[in-house]
Design a protein that fits this description.
heterodimer; A: six-stranded antiparallel β-sheet; B: alpha/beta; Rossmann fold; 2 domains; seven-stranded mixed β-sheet
Amino acid sequence: MNIHEYQAKQLFELFGVMTTKGSVVTTAEEAKIIASAFLSKEFVVKAQIHAGGRGQGTFKDGFRGGVHVVKTADEASKIAAAMLQNTLVTHQTGPQGRLVGKVLVAESVDISQEYYLAIVLDRASAAPLVIASREGGMDIERVAQESPEKIWKEPVHPLIGLQPYQSRNIAHHLGFRGKQFLAASTLILNLYRLFDQSECMMVEVNPLVLTKSGEVFALDAKLSFDENALFRHESIEAMRDMSEEDPREVAASAFHLNYIALEGDIACLVNGAGLAMATMDIIKHHGGEPANFLDVGGGATEEQVTEAFKILTQDPKVKAILVNIFGGIMHCDIIAQGIINAFKTTKISLPIIVRLEGTKVEEGKKLLQESQLPLQTASDLKNAAQKVVAAASISLSHSCSLIS
Amino acid sequence: MSVLVDKNTRLLVQGITGKAGAFHARSCEEYGTNVVAGVTPGRGGEYFNHKIPIFDTVLEARKITGCNATMIFVPAPSAADAIVEAASAGLELIVCITEGIPVHDMMRVKSIFAESFQNPPILIGPNCPGIITPNQCKIGIMPGYIHKPGPVGVVSRSGTLTYEAVWQLTARGIGQSTCIGIGGDPIHGMTQMDALSLLNKDPKTEAIIMIGEIGGSEEEEAALWAKQYCNKPIVAFIAGATAPEGRRMGHAGAIIQGSQGTATLKQEALRAAGIAVAPSSADIAETLITILEKQ
């Protein structure tokens, strides 16, 4: 789960991670009030959407830039007015863009030096790892590749956490001295507390800055949380912004279906995450393009299968559907009944290829046969993939001929 | 011989009175697994299925029944505690089926295993289908009937994709020595490399199928190890070649981060180690047959 920049700022304040003063607003008037209260000479006004590339983005009405630096409270209010309830398109949002409902108004600082600081849960060592570099504002992967000696990696003991001396070693490597050395050490320790107590997968501060007036600030941050742990972090779960997520993915999650929208035209419905990925891959292997990842889980009910079908058939891009089930805990007759129910409640005109295998496969096949629905069955996975790719290309040429 | 589990395994089921725990305890027993005890705190003294004693603690279950392996179905919030409880009671093999355990919990479990036990028990999972030695012992949620005894060892991060591979083998008359599902979480017990090492040592295993997926670097590490130490033919398959970057593909551990953990990188590492990579999930058994014929 991702959160907005202003929410990350709130968490930073809560854990004592020094950052610039700022507030989130939903109206231009509020923006003016907030900016007037700040002491800095300049303010920054930032559109709050999850996608990156905001600074270079363009709003649908032609207004340019989702990040602006302004000098007066009146200007802050004008920029906020231009952004709010406007749709921002960046290289990460896709052409449809995202509606901006909130903007962040924050103090602007004069930067003297930029740094990179992150805490990740490292899979290989099964422990937290602090990563720090003097090359701030840069792509850390590139720094790691080109000059690995510039990156400091501090492994953290999972049971005792980051120790104060470790935070001092990191601050020293970054080159902080005197008052700033102490400030940076404290910031790193507090950032670790946030990582640990909120059960983050990653906290990335890029950049961490030293200002010309000598303060150490976490200027921009990306936080990601372990979704498995959200049940014990209600306040973080409350930060989830559904409007930032694909509506089909939100609909699917309401029925505990694991769905991810993709760009292709062949939809698939599969049980199990590994098999679902392998099904997408085999569609591509035979020349098609998968429209989604969909794992109905090991113990899906008829209702879940019916809902899954609704989500797939509502996608206008989809030209054909492949159902690939290997029944283990999941019984094939339940899948079959779910498909039959979907046909009763939804108008489905797409070609559907069904491949069933495993527990109660004969019962499942019999149900589908007796239903006399317009389904094609497949003998195995390869056969199923070939059939669905063929069906999608026929239905594609069919719709093209209708247009011409 | 077989790997880790056989007819002599005495199985405990933690969370035996829950819906999934009860269903699968029964199904393992029907398969022939020797299920000797269950644990559900607060239900000690009762019996499961009128004959399997239920205990409040793993320690008590071990003392009274001599169980040496456990299958965990405890719900995610308490599952990490259940794993450590089993380890401290001295069980040798812990198979954790539970899905959705917080990653920070698993991180602490691994740390406790490394520091508190001189000979830490073997942990399989969590978020895995379990382990099976066909016709001898099934600890997990896989459908038993798709398996058949034979010479091929299987290790996998996925559940149903493993069934797919096993079924392809069985349908072609090729049986399996032991099949191990190591699970789809980012931090888990047994790794691909650990499993390869066990299968390599097992005299009944003549060839190995390794099924991986995007995310992490276990397949790359296993490839490096196999190149040096494994003397049995391996066929690998990596799921997720079409997965987008930065999205969790169902399994918490199946995620491409930046340029790391892609299917292409893994396939290259495997090929560089002389491991045959199946072009699609439908070709896993056929690829194995092809390389065995060449030998």
